[in-house]
Write a structure and sequence with these properties.
Helix content is about 30%, strand content about 20%.
């Protein structure tokens, strides 16, 4: 049966909000929103991710970007992406997300929305200041294991860890650190799946906050590392990626 895709028509003007449907309805709402944020934040700053429990809105979500170019890149590159085993159907939202705000009862006039965006900017500035205080560069995208391991980051009782650990040599398995506690293997798979050679994600239940991601060879793992280094799983959690020690 032909897919009715109004997003393909010229009547919808490109805007900062994308509408996604054909989502897996079995996924819990909060996990769905976090996973969507994780997958789409690679395209630019996200102001909010909206999804609702109501029957009318099941299997659907809206992602509001700060820039139209971010929404456009996300639409083009993620169209048909296998998200929780179902291909995403993406188009521009018809009314730049006002309709969504009305649907969940949180509609606010434009002037109040501007304050909301300024609040989001303030949070980003504060987050960047926190990263600077920790000696982290949010724009860092190093390769070949050049990211400092967690043992070199300041935390209570870390006075003794002054000697940098020698990075592991390049190989096909990546060691991912600084993940938020709610991270699931599926969320990481969504991020790393887009890079050639991806094989699997392994998490250690006894050690939350870390994971191992395997690729076919070290060249493929390096590409993924370069692109996802410093990726914000949450505003407070930037992924730290190195090669795994064997």
């Amino acid at each position: 049966m032909a897919e009715n895709n109004p997003g393909a028509g010229p009547e919808i003007t490109p805007n900062v909000t994308i509408y996604i449907n054909n989502l897996n309805e079995k996924i819990k709402l909060e996990e769905l929103k976090k996973s969507l944020h994780a997958v789409f934040s690679q395209f630019g700053k996200i102001l909010e991710v909206l999804a609702f429990k109501t029957l009318k809105h099941k299997g659907q979500a809206w992602v509001v970007f700060e820039e139209v170019s971010s929404a456009t890149n996300a639409l083009r590159q993620m169209q048909g992406f296998p998200f929780y085993d179902k291909p995403m159907r993406i188009q521009y939202a018809k009314t730049k997300s006002d309709i969504i705000s009305k649907a969940d009862g949180t509609f606010v006039p434009r002037e109040k929305r501007k304050r909301h965006e300024e609040k989001g900017k303030k949070r980003k500035d504060q987050n960047d200041a926190n990263q600077a205080a920790m000696g982290m560069n949010p724009a860092y995208a190093g390769a070949y294991g050049a990211t400092p391991p967690l043992s070199q980051l300041p935390y209570p009782g870390a006075v003794k860890n002054n000697v940098p650990e020698a990075p592991a040599p390049p190989n096909n398995i990546l060691f991912v650190q600084n993940l938020p506690p709610e991270t699931t293997p599926m969320m990481l798979q969504m991020l790393f799946y887009q890079y050639p050679g991806f094989k699997e994600v392994r998490m250690v239940e006894a050690k939350p906050g870390i994971a191992f991601v395997e690729f076919g060879d070290e060249m493929q793992s390096t590409v993924a590392m370069q692109n996802l280094q410093g990726f914000k799983m949450t505003p407070q959690n930037l992924m730290l990626i190195t090669y795994a020690k064997k």
